[in-house]
Structures are given as structure tokens and as C-alpha cells.
Amino acid sequence: MNKRAVGSEYEARAAAHLESLGYRIVCRNYRSRMGEIDLIARHKEYLVFIEVKYRADENSGSAAEAVDFKKQQRIIRVARWYLMEHHMPEETPVRFDVVAFEGDQVRVIPDAFWT
User: Fold this and answer.
1) DSSP per residue, 47-95
2) What is the C-alpha to C-alpha distance for residues 41 and 55, in angstroms, rounded to an integer?
3) C-alpha to C-alpha distance for 22 and 18, rounded to whole angstroms
4) Architecture of domain 3-109
5) 15-69: per-residue pLDDT in tens?
6) What is the DSSP string of 10-33?
7) How many CA atoms lie within 13 A of 83 on its CB side?
């Protein structure tokens, strides 16, 4: 399987897992001129921007570690663009979660980073 196909598979698995936890997926693979966000969901009072990462093993670091400061800043910029594009108020409560797949394990990291 190519990299994009693997990414799509894990994004679908992440969406299903999040839905089982009470998240309501509102957008998959949101793209703008600022970049991409894997999943956008509603969870409780939050609009949640979600990055999905997969690692077959930890030889190249953990999946969660792959969401470094630079990646976080890009996700924040795209999230701001999404809010603007959808005419959402600045007071909209948002959160940034990471879904990390490491081998057969899945871990949801709510509020993984802050703005």
C-alpha cells in the first residue's frame, strides 16, 4: 500500500474510534491554502481539530512525537482559516487532539497542544 492509502486507512480507523467515544465527525481531510487537517469533529462543547499519526514501530520515534512544534503551528493556522471560512465566532471553544497509532495500539490524546 502506498503512503496515502495507509494514511486514509488510519484516518478512517481514527474516525470510527472517535465516534465510539462520542465524537461527531464533521469533516475529513479539510484542505485549504494554509494546509490540511485530518479530521474535524464536535466533542461535547468543543470543535476539535485532530491530527492522525501512525507508526509501525518506535524506531523513528512515537506517533505522538511526530506532531512537533512546527506541525502544531501549521495545524493551528489551518484551524484559524477553517473558523474564518465557516464564519465561526472567535469565542468558539476549540481543542487540538492527536490520535496516535503505534502498531496495534491506538491512543487518543485530547488537548494535545495549546494555542
Assistant:
1) EEEEEEEEESSGGG--TGGGS-HHHHHHHHHHHHHHHHHTT--TT--EE
2) 23
3) 7
4) 3-Layer(aba) Sandwich (3.40)
5) 999 999 999 999 999 999 989 999 999 999 999 999 999 876 666 667 677 788 9
6) HHHHHHHHHHHTT-EEEEEEEEET
7) 18
Q: Is 83 exposed, middle or buried (0-12, 13-18, 19+ CB in 10 A)?
A: middle
CA 75 to CA 109: how far, in whole Å? 15
Read off the amino acid at residue 53. Answer: K
For residue range 57-93, what is the model confidence (pLDDT) as tens digits? 666 667 677 788 999 999 999 999 999 999 999 899 9
Sign of CA dihedral 24, 27, 29, 35: negative
Query: Which grid cell sits at 64?
Result: 505522538
